[in-house]
Amino acid sequence: xxxxxxxxxxxxxxxxxxxxxxxxxxxxxxxxxxxxxxxxxxxxxxxxxxxxxxxxxxxxxxxxxxxxxxxxxxxxxxxxxxxxxxxxxxxxxxxxxxxxxxxxxxxxxxxxxxxxxxxxxxxxxxxxxxxxxxxxxxxxxxxxxxxxxxxxxxxxxxxxxxxxxxxxxxxxxxxxxxxxxxxxxxxxxxxxxxxxxxxxxxxxxxx
Length: 207
Prior knowledge:
Distance between the termini: 39 Å
Mean pLDDT: 92
Order of helices and strands: HHEEEEHEEHHEEE
CATH class: Mainly Beta
Helix content: 10-25%
Structural class: alpha+beta
CATH superfamily: Electron Transport, Fmn-binding Protein, Chain A
Radius of gyration: 21 Å
CATH topology: Pnp Oxidase, Chain A
Strand content: 25-35%
CATH architecture: Roll
Low-confidence stretches: 7-15
Number of helices: 5
């Protein structure tokens, strides 16, 4: 076999190697948190805008993409910014249950998170976060109308005041994390459940 052919074969073999978490469940959860933390640091990461779902007053799901602002793996929390007048904020008055979905087709990884949701409208943290925001990011909170309000003309929307009075932090506390990895060698699926003793150690599931 020629040198170039051997190099090509070696390259193909390396490309087919599975990540270290493939058969090691102790590596799965750290890798999942690494992926989510990447979404905070890198706006080009597919973890930057996960799908966040809430429940309306009838118990029906409402989903939307949101920008991930912070992750704390020790507290198992994710942080998002929102308008306190928004539909999602009002839905939390009837149900604090929610879910967050991540998917990266290149990594072939899906994360499904079951969460408890809470809203912070006036605290040291909200003031600190507001103070660090760019002026252009504050504009959407200065609207004279609430997000989702019906209008007959887009020009009806005016931007007035500082906007801080409408700003809120949405915190998702992860109660359960289900991880899925897709591979031609065989898919892998695992679950981590903080509501059960030892649940953070994880269990394999049938993909």
